[in-house]
Design a protein that fits this description.
heterodimer; A: about 120 residues; mainly alpha; 4 helices; about 90% helix; about 0% strand; B: about 350 residues; alpha+beta; Ribosomal Protein S5, domain 2; Pdz3 Domain; 2 domains; 6-stranded mixed beta sheet; 4-stranded antiparallel beta sheet
Chain lengths: ~120, ~350
């Protein structure tokens, strides 16, 4: 954890807050463009194939994990494109951030699967 | 951001038109109705009865619901078209007349009325053996339909209770059967309703000159008073509407009132409306309900069998089972009354 925060301090020192926010905004917009139709397709299929609600909910969780990974990969790419010879550990920091995000999303996904869907089906 | 846009500009350029087409398919609605298999909903999550709380029911009693999709998108329509279990039809008149929110309200009202019928039938059935059970109910007349020509359309909500009407010669009318006879001289009459919050309000409704009607449909039903009945029961909020769960709701409530476990550890599901005399009524979406029950590994499925006519639910269900290779012997159980279902479950328990 210490290394992670130290890594972020290095990235901040090298790029500046504005460039980091710009990279994440670009990554967010592009990854959202990619994932939005996938979400809509899965949700519309889920409504018609509601009998397979758990299978499709798992696919939605997988899509969310993919979104998280894509967002971080694009952010990393954007930062590298801004400064190809950067010395800060961008790849490492964003990789662990992506892993942490995925774990969190997985927990939320499991709550949806085992708590929210059964509550909703009343 | 610019670096990313520059790097992927070719992909963005070439995919722009297909992307828009995809969004069009995903959002453009069609004037159709898609009905697909849905899921099971356990009745014990819908109704709470403070009685026999130490009792453990090993099996489950569930209603079966289907997914009705009014005005599906082109994509949903295509998915439904290729789904062998879905049925496509033109948008039903109710969806053309009412907004989706209004249809949901009507459907919920239908479910609440069905639940009160279920409580009445189950309590009455148990009262014979358990004198501690008390049932108190009163007849209510509620707004169940509104014509687009109804004056004060937005002020009168579905489910509001009809209280009285000031008819000709200032006669106070309290029964809907007397409305016609008491409103022959004029065109505008004062109706008094009670809303969900219990507040009374009066509106002057105009008669439609062409039809001679006020444009309002009422429904009368018997509402159980939970405070004056024993044991006390509560109905939880739910997302699933309609009256087709009546039979299974009655069975589940009956199970909550008895010492024995009427499920005998089995997963019980089914469909059918319930009437106050304990008889069951037809439902729609038989195909989707059978598929839903089968996919959810239900042990027993109750379905109304009232007559040897082509539209009979049981006969339709048998045809569905044959078409989709679903073994229906001892699984699909034809039912005419609540008592039939109860007898079957008792027999099932005795046979084990």
């Amino acid at each position: 954890m210490k290394q992670y925060f130290a890594g972020w301090r290095q990235i901040k020192a090298e790029y500046g807050v504005k460039a980091i926010l710009d990279a994440f905004l670009g990554a967010f917009l592009l990854s959202t463009l990619v994932i939005a139709p996938i979400y809509f397709i899965l949700i519309e299929v889920l409504i018609v194939y509601f009998v397979k609600v758990y299978t499709l909910a798992v696919l939605l969780i997988v899509a969310t994990l993919f979104y998280n990974i894509l967002l971080h990969r694009l952010a990393k790419q954007s930062l590298f494109l801004k400064k190809p010879n950067c010395l800060a550990p961008v790849g490492k920091v964003l990789f662990w951030q992506s892993v942490g995000g995925s774990v969190l999303l997985m927990i939320l996904g499991l709550i949806v699967l085992f708590v929210l869907i059964p509550i909703w089906m009343v | 951001m610019n670096e990313l846009v520059e790097k992927y500009q070719h992909a963005i350029k070439y995919l722009f038109i297909p992307y828009l087409v995809l969004l069009f398919l995903l959002f453009y609605p069609l004037e159709y109705y898609v009905q697909s298999p849905g899921g099971l909903s356990e009745v014990e999550k819908l109704v709470n009865i403070e009685y026999q709380e130490e009792k453990e029911t090993k099996g489950s009693i569930s209603t079966t619901f289907v997914m009705g999709i009014p005005s599906p998108t082109i994509f949903q329509f295509l998915v439904g078209y290729f789904n062998p279990y879905s049925d496509l039809s033109v948008l039903p008149a109710s969806y053309q007349q009412y907004t989706p929110t209004e249809v949901t309200r009507i459907s919920n009202l239908d479910k609440v009325i069905s639940l009160h019928n279920a409580v009445i039938v189950a309590y009455q059935a148990r009262m014979q053996d358990d004198p501690a059970i008390i049932l108190s109910s009163e007849v209510k007349t509620v707004v169940f339909g509104k014509s687009s020509t109804l004056s004060h359309y937005d002020e009168i909500a579905f489910g509001d209770e009809f209280v009285s009407l000031l008819g000709d010669n200032d006669t106070l009318v309290k029964s809907i059967s007397e409305i016609g006879g008491a409103t022959t001289n004029g065109n505008e009459y004062a109706f008094t309703f009670r809303n969900k919050a219990g507040e009374l309000y009066t509106v002057n409704l105009l008669k439609n000159l062409d039809t001679g009607l006020f444009g309002i449909t009422f429904r009368t039903y018997e509402e159980v008073d939970p405070a004056l009945s024993y044991p006390i029961f509560t109905i939880n909020d739910s997302n699933i509407g309609g009256p087709s769960g009546g039979l299974l709701q009655t069975l589940a409530i009956y199970d909550m009132l008895t010492e024995t476990d009427i499920t005998h550890g089995k997963k019980i599901a089914g469909t059918g409306t319930i009437n106050q005399d304990g008889s069951v009524g037809y439902i729609g979406g038989v195909k989707q309900k059978i598929i839903t029950a089968y996919e959810n590994n239900v042990d027993v499925f109750f379905i109304p069998y009232l007559d040897d006519v082509s539209y009979d639910n049981y006969l339709e269900a048998v045809n569905v089972c044959k078409a989709y290779n679903i073994p229906y012997e001892d699984w699909l159980i034809p039912i005419e009354t609540f008592q039939n279902a109860l007898d079957y479950l008792n027999l099932m328990g005795g046979a084990e």
